[in-house]
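A brief tutorial aside. Many learners find it easier to grasp structure tokens once they have seen a single protein encoded end to end. The record that follows does exactly this for alpha-glucosidase. Read the sequence first, then the structure, and try to relate runs of similar tokens to stretches of the chain.
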Amino acid sequence: MARSRPASRWTLLFSLVVLLGCMVIPGWTVKHENFKTCAQSGFCRRNRDFADNASAKGEAWSSPYELDPATVHFKDGHLTGVLIKTTANEKVLLPLTVSFLESGAARVVVDEEKRLKGDIELRHDSKANKKRYDEAEKWVIVGGLEVSKSATLNAQAETGFTQVLYGPGDKFQAVIRHAPFGVDFQRDGQTHVQLNHQGLLNLEHWRPKVDRPEGEEAGEDESTWWEETFGGNTDSKPRGPESVGLDITFPGYDHVFGIPEHADSLSLKETRGGSGNHKEPYRMYNSDVFEYELNSPMTLYGAIPFMQAHRKSSTVGVFWLNAAETWVDIVKSTTSPNPLSLGASSKTNTQTHWFSEAGRIDLFVFLGPSPKEISKTYGELTGYTQLPQHFAIGYHQCRWNYVTDEDVKEVDAKFDKYQIPYDVIWLDLEYTDDRKYFTWEPLTFPNPTGMQEKLDESERKLVVLIDPHIKKEEGYFVQEELNKKNFAVRNKDGDVYEGWCWPGASNWVDCFNPAVISWWNSLHKYDRFKGSLSNLFIWNDMNEPSVFNGPETTMPKDNMHYGDWEHRDIHNVNGITLVNATYQALLERKKGEVRRPFILTRSYYAGAQRMAAMWTGDNQATWGHLAASLPMVLNNGISGFPFAGADVGGFFHNPDKDLLTRWYQAGIWYPFFRAHAHIDTRRREPYLISEPHRTIISQAIRLRYQLLPAWYTAFHEASVNGIPIVRPQYYVYPDDEEGFAIDDQLYLGATGLLAKPVVAENANTADIYISDDEKYYDYFDFTVYQGAGKRHTVPAPQEKVPLLIQGGHIIPRKDRPRRSSGLMRWDPYTLVVTLDKNGEADGSLYVDDGETFNYERGGYIHRRFHFRESVLSSEDLGAKGPKTAEYLKTMDGVTVERVVIVDPPKEWREKSSVTVVEDGAKTSSAAPLEYYKQQGKKASYAVVKKPNVGIGKTWRIEF
């Protein structure tokens, strides 16, 4: 990338090294040598060895942990006690708390008494906090901790057990075994989740380092207890070994989902080898992984340690609240029935083994029984996804990098010339002055305000990159303030930590410090981030954090953060602390103007969904990466972070026109829809692609815009109950076992829209699996597909997006193409009604101003549409508030201009009009009805033209 003015020799050299490291050379893949395997991670190897030893001993193995019955107390929904770990030298005391929550979830916390009391000695004169990290919930948990008032001890419990009844109707029970310690969580008398069933509970307690005479061997392998070296960096480990591990078994469950982020299938694979399985555990250690590979348990940029187990008619889940590096092994075992038991079938048990390097055991257990109930209960804890500004669900155009402000304006004009809608254009790091954030490159972006004002003419937005590494340069105001205020991350010796990232030598902002929030807020104000306007939003990248010269491309684990916590304690929540600071900063950049923030983050953890969107990072322009994007986005959605997407077209390499076209047709089904590309790739804005591909891509983007009302309604639903925006097959049909592993098709919200993007080269059909016996209609020509439990071949020539609508739905859309979603605000609606077998349909629409928080005060429209007995009606679902009347007045002129009814009664052929009755109108009116008969497998349809009923009003249309 050419620069417009001289740079220092060091910067030029560093940039050359970085660019050489990022050269787009086909066949390059992730550098495995930069990242640990389990065998190279001391605590992972120790916990796996512990499991292997237990397995080898078989029935002779007994977990060395027991619950002292004399310490057990139950009061106000909390059961407390002390676990005793018996070793050769001592008995270690481990306080236990099991909390039974009003939501039906249960929380299990195990800590270590000595560390709680600070009764340990740190090595190397370290100032690290002596406790196990117990502040993850500050960043993650926002509610749902109300303790059950009805939970009770079961007086009928057997000796050696404590039993607690809890949950709705006391249908849940926790059966706590004293010796060896274990917990079975039951629903309706059947066990669904088991803790320590295999006896793999392992909490590495504190002990002093013993300097043994030369030649004397320790009883255990201590080679990674006190320090550990990888990639030239030595981790000092001042607290010694402190990992925690636990086995969690799901008896009778064959499928487990979740624990993103991995480039893998939705249904997670086994991890102990064998055909089609992984040999490594799934790893969660947020990392900057260059050109990541597919079908891998390798760690990526985000981590949500939330797993669901699913079987017919039942979903359960666990959430492992630990911010340290974590690995999860998965093994499935099948038990054969007693041959004398007639009708009995084999049963699969999924055994998982979780282990983290540090912190305490803090585990939530959810007993469902449905996927929706799991989503809701988990969402009550960690928060539901944000309701973003409306522009954020449109199309985003990005690359590394648009090189000047005139380049941005030219791209903007070309989209208009070719009539391709988009909402947001993005700037990667080259917009800054020598890679210093909160500045503009003076020669290439001399007029940033003029650029943003031009975008604002079409109600478009600008997103710019701001990362957590701050360039170390004398005179740079951000860096000087960072160090003057002691807001930087420090190394193990207490000095400001210095590493390399895009700017060269850099320091890192420590967003764990509460004082950093107000400072970070000030940097985003218009008078400090000069040249920024109200239509500018933020992209937080590299926030794992990425450190080019650090171990595993991140910070040393013995770095120090606010509160004297080591980086090992907080690594996986590090990214969302930056997002939190940015979110607070964007709420009110100008006094009195509160708007919903928009932030994109690469690194994330549970809870990030409240503040940001995410994308799957630096993918590649291959058919494989296109296919992988679907399960990755779906997995994030069921894990509570549904505002997810992947770089359309692939970040690395140059997609051919067929791949790029199919990727756009898939990308319109990502909740976050953005095209992005590496600096060394060819320009590939949609208008640059030759025909017929340009038109096909444009049509796909327009389809996204046509369906924005349905998308926004789905976003709203996710924001109030945690249900994913796009949903996998098992989630919609939890009783259909044939659909449990399907992860290449998806449903949009509750609309009945079923999409199956083409993700294979040269394919011209799509096999769409249908679970139920309802009619499904091709979205474009109303061809009927029907037949439960089988795949239906749908034509998918290159110009077509395979898309069906299930019968029984009413879909709101807008059919007038505009340059941006903001310009569609006052456009009329079309309602598409697909009748089910009973001639009925339902749907909903949610609308607000798409910008402010006025919806929290009643400033929105929420309607439910019914079609029953040849009457289409609109019912108000909203709750009134102080902003209701004002908002309804602004929407008074927005109407329904067209109603399309698919598969109507044949007798409608004789009708020419319908009766329209709007609430409050003195008389009814008539609207023309046109009936269109179709041949063969295509359903007939009817169109009501210009009923002109208000979208925010109560009305009915009588056929």
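Self-check: The chain has a mean pLDDT of 95. If you spotted this yourself, you are ready for the next section.
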